[in-house]
Amino acid sequence: MAKLLELDDDYFGDQFGVEADTYARFSYYPPCPRPEFVFGLKPHSDGSFITLLMVDSSIGGLQVLRDGAWYGVPTKRHTLIINLGDQMEIMSDGTFKSPVHRVVTNAEKERLSVALFYSVDPEREIQPAGKLVDENHPALYKKVKIKEYIAGFYEHFSQGKMVIETAKI
Ligand SMILES: O=C(O)CCC(=O)C(=O)O
Ligand SMILES: [Fe+2]
């Protein structure tokens, strides 16, 4: 991905720092008698740099927002879903997007997923890569401290808001 942006090969790896974090979230979505009223997980983008997601291949539920419409993410056995998070959107100055996604419930079937969130060292700050920014391509995102961003993520999520909006210039 660094190559696609004409950055040094190890640009993103170097941003992680020595105390980078990995969080795992194991989610169990029980059957829900009224799926039209209840989300399994409400719309959000991931606050991570990158997320590896292992979803139940026997049932869908994960949806991604594109141009105002929700699309079901297909499931396939033994396949990981790789999702880009907000930290990547910020560092790439918006070239790579952190997609808004959600999980819908199902009236009959339960569902399991495991997400691994890879995140920059919480003590570090990130900003759009210097090489991507000049007078014709201004920075679209502010410098953010990861620790504060992650704390802001949960606060915004609980209010149904997107923390990435606070990083936009
Ligand atoms: O359960 C899923 O498929 C998605 C989980 C997710 O988006 C998350 O934990 O951030
Ligand atoms: Fe997510």
Give the overall silhouette: elongated
Number of helices: 4
- The CA-CA distance between the termini, in Å, is 24 Å
Strand order of the largest sheet: 1-8-3-6
Fraction of residues in β-strands: 25-35%
Number of strands: 10
The distinct ligands, each listed once, are:
2-oxoglutaric acid, fe (ii) ion
Question: Could you outline the blueprint of secondary structure elements for this entry?
Answer:
Elements: H1 11-15, E1 21-29, E2 39-44, E3 50-55, E4 62-66, E5 69-72, E6 81-84, H2 86-91, E7 101-104, E8 111-119, E9 125-126, E10 144-145, H3 146-158, H4 164-167
Antiparallel strand pairs: 1-8, 2-7, 3-6, 3-8, 4-5, 4-7, 9-10
The protein binds 2-oxoglutaric acid (AKG) and fe (ii) ion (FE2).
Q: Could you explain the architecture of this structure?
A:
The protein is α+β, with helices and mostly antiparallel strands and 169 residues long. The protein has one domain (2-166): Jelly Rolls, CATH 2.60.120.330. The protein is 17% helix and 30% strand. The chain is built from 4 helices and 10 strands; from the N terminus they run αββββββαββββαα. The protein is elongated and about 55 Å long. The mean pLDDT is 96. Bound molecules: 2-oxoglutaric acid and fe (ii) ion (FE2). Fe (ii) ion is lined by residues 44, 46, 101. Residues 19-120 form the Fe2OG dioxygenase domain.
List keywords for this structure.
169 residues, alpha+beta, Jelly Rolls, 4-stranded antiparallel beta sheet, 4 helices, 17% helix, elongated, binds 2-oxoglutaric acid, binds fe (ii) ion, iron, IPNS-like_FE2OG_OXY, Oxoglu/Fe-dep_dioxygenase_dom
